Each structure stands twice: as structure tokens, then as C-alpha cells.
Amino acid sequence: MVNSNSKKFAKSSPFSSLFLLVVFCFFLLFAYQFSHQFFVHKYLTIKFNNTTLKQHQYQEEQVPAAQASVFDPCTGRYIYVYDLPDRFNFRIIQHCQNLSRTSDVCKHVTNSGLGPKLVDTSSTLPETGWYVTDQFMLEIIFHNSMKQYECLTTDYSKSTAVYIPYYIGLGIMQYLFGYSASQRDALINDFLHWLRARPEWAARGGRDHFMVIGRVAWDFFRTTNESKRWGGKFLTLPEAKNMTLLFIETSNMHENEFGIPYPTYFHPSEKSQVVAWQEQLRSKTRPWLFSFAGKRHPNGIATMRDLIMDQCANATRCNLHECGTGTQDCHSPSNILGLFMSSIFCLQPPGDSPTRKSTFDSMVAGCIPVFFHPGSAYKQYYWYLPSNFNKYSVYIPEKAVLEGTVRIEDVLLGYSDEQINEMRENILAMIPTLVYKDPRNKSDDIRDAFDVTVDGVLRRIHSRNVL
């Protein structure tokens, strides 16, 4: 006897088998698709990233790289420049005829402060890059150079430093002789009143601010209100103590004062001009062992300078260029540069103040400077001159000259040709950073004194932790 359930199963088994076959086929298809997608995904992940990271993980890792591609090279170098009322700069040079009773300042403010193009009748100098530049025009030159700076910003919050283009040295020039103390200080007080009201000043108390002052610091260090005292009182005021102040000669009394080079006659607009000049100096014949250009003390008092001039006059190997006598014109750049280019050593004694524009003019001419006082260079221009002064200069203590225990000629004769050539090569290598390039041209292939100055200012502000 056959079981009834077995009969039912037997009757339905063909359909059941078909159903099971269909289910099995779908299972195989699903398994194939899953395994294929898994294999492809894993393969592409490894192939694409060469790691076991999945694709979305790789994309997340790429975010920093994308951000790095738009990194701002000016970060930490942005400079904010005040748009000053024109009475603090432009109007001063607009009335240049009032600035001096003895010289034509108007010709010197031309060409963005470089002065007239230098015409060299002796054909000693190249035809381009040379100007009759006055030693007090640095405020104008630096301001125009700043206009070419690649990291300027009008957003104070992004800035590291704040530049104040106030022509304070030119502003006080006309009031230094024959005017009262209040007249000398009037524009300075006006400027400080304007500055104190600025939100940029209030933000950090001026510790991120800097100024370029184209005169010696002693012109602004009057400590009383007596009109008989020299200069203005800017350096004695609280605001001046917070800023970074850049002078052509510091007082060496304040930690926020820094010496920067006097402007020379050479203002290249491209690197090729510098290279050509260096090569010309290397091949130059120098018949004189040493030389000096300057004046004696007007009151007949025997000063350090007078004693040095006497030694030069009595030495057969020294070329003395005594200014104001005969045809020797110290106001002719061609004459002065010709003197320096024909000399191995150039004497640089203190004058009315420790430093001289002549120091930089002589070095640009390839002449090795001879100093008699550390304040003439070694304690002034830390950012521009090697700390080992023997690499580029000679030092003879002024005491030895005053006491008559040393002959300058004997000291200089003690240097060998090899030592002289090495010192001159060091000077030639320094020339680009001792001069200010033409501020009317943007030249990125020359690192000049402006660039060194800006770097020094930014380093100082960063080191003060004011940001």
C-alpha cells in the first residue's frame, strides 16, 4: 500500500524540482555579481591608491594636498602701509624749495628720490643705473620701493608689520637752523596725534609698526624744550619707543633703533648691471695704496680727521682729496667715485657724526674701508655687514692716531696682495645688499638693501611675539 503523502509528493515533484532549479540559478547569479563587484572594488582600490585604503579614504587624504597647492607664500610677510594725509609726505616734497637754504633739494627728490641721472664725462661709470643721490633722500626711496613689495595688504588683520611712510627727516630739515623747538616739533606732534587715533596703532600699541628715517638719530634726541638745543624730540616720546626705527645712523642707545645703509649713487634696475659693475671693478687698476676725501675742521681745531688728513698728505702712496680747495669738488660723484676706484684702501674717520655716506660709496667702488671708530660701521649695520669685520675692512683705533703711535701707511703696507684680493672679493659680493635698486622698476632678481631691511623688520616683529 502506498502512503497518500508519498503520492502527493510524487505528483508535485516535477514542479518542485523546477522551482528549486530557478532558485538555485538566481543564487548563482547573485553570488557571481557580488563576488565580481567585490573583486573589482578591491582591485581598483589597490590599483588606484597602491594601498589597502578604500577610495573614499584616499579622497580624504587628498584634502591637505589640495590645500597645500594654494599655500600663500606671503603668510607671515604681509605689510600694511598707512595711507597718510599728504602733509606728512607728499606735501613736504611738493614744497621742496623750502627745505634747505644752502642746496637745491628739488633736484634730489626727482626720479623717486634718486635725483638727476649721473652724467659721467670721464666715461668711468656705466651709462645706466647711476644717479646724483643725496644722502638724506632715503625716506622717498624706501617709500617708492615699498610700492613694489610683493606682499602688501590693505587688510590689517593679515599683516605682520605696518609701514609708516612719514618723511620725518625731510619734514624737520628746514627747521634745524634758526627755528624754535616748538616749530621743529610741530609736524611731529601733529603726526603722533593722528597716529594715536588709528585702530591699527591701538591693536598692538605700535609694536608692529616701523619707520624709515633718512637722518641720523641725534637729529631727534632733544631732551628739553630749549630752542638752543639741537633737533627734534621724537625719540624721547613714548610712541617712538614702541616702533622699530630705521636710521642711516643710530644713537646706539635704544634697542629699537637699527642702522640701514646710506643711499649710494648706484641704483641698478636689473642683475646684469650689478654683475657688469662687479667685473669692471675686478679688472680696475688701483695705483694708490689709500685715499681720503673730506674737509678739515672749520675752526682750525686739530681733530681726528685733521690728523688723518695730515698723514695722508705726507704719505707718497696716499691720494688726498681735500674738499673745498682748488678744483677738488666733493659734490661731484664722478670725482669721488674716481678717487675710490683708483685706491686700494679708503679712510673713513668720523666727522660730524660717527658714520659717513662715503663708507658705502667707497665699498660700491670696490675700495676697502679703513675705520677708526667702531660706531662708524661695526655697531651700526648689523643686518648688512659681516660680524667678522676683518673680512672686508681694516680697523685702526683712533687713540693710536691721536697719540701718534701709529702710521696709517705702515699698517696698510702690512697687508699682502692675497689678503687684499680676498677682502675686495668679499666687498664685491656685498654690493647688491648695500645699494637700493631703482624703485621705479620691479626687479625680483636683485636682493638689495630694501629686501634685507624688510626681512630684518619682519624677524624682529616675529621675535617680539606681538602677533
TrEMBL record:
Subcellular location: Golgi apparatus membrane
Keywords: Glycosyltransferase, Golgi apparatus, Signal-anchor, Transferase, Transmembrane
Gene Ontology MF term list: glycosyltransferase activity
Chief location: Golgi
Signal peptide interval: none
Residue spans crossing the bilayer: none
A Pfam family matched in the record: Exostosin_GT47
The keyword Cytoplasm appears for this protein: no
Family affiliation: Belongs to the glycosyltransferase 47 family.
Name listed for the protein in its UniProt record: Xyloglucan galactosyltransferase KATAMARI1
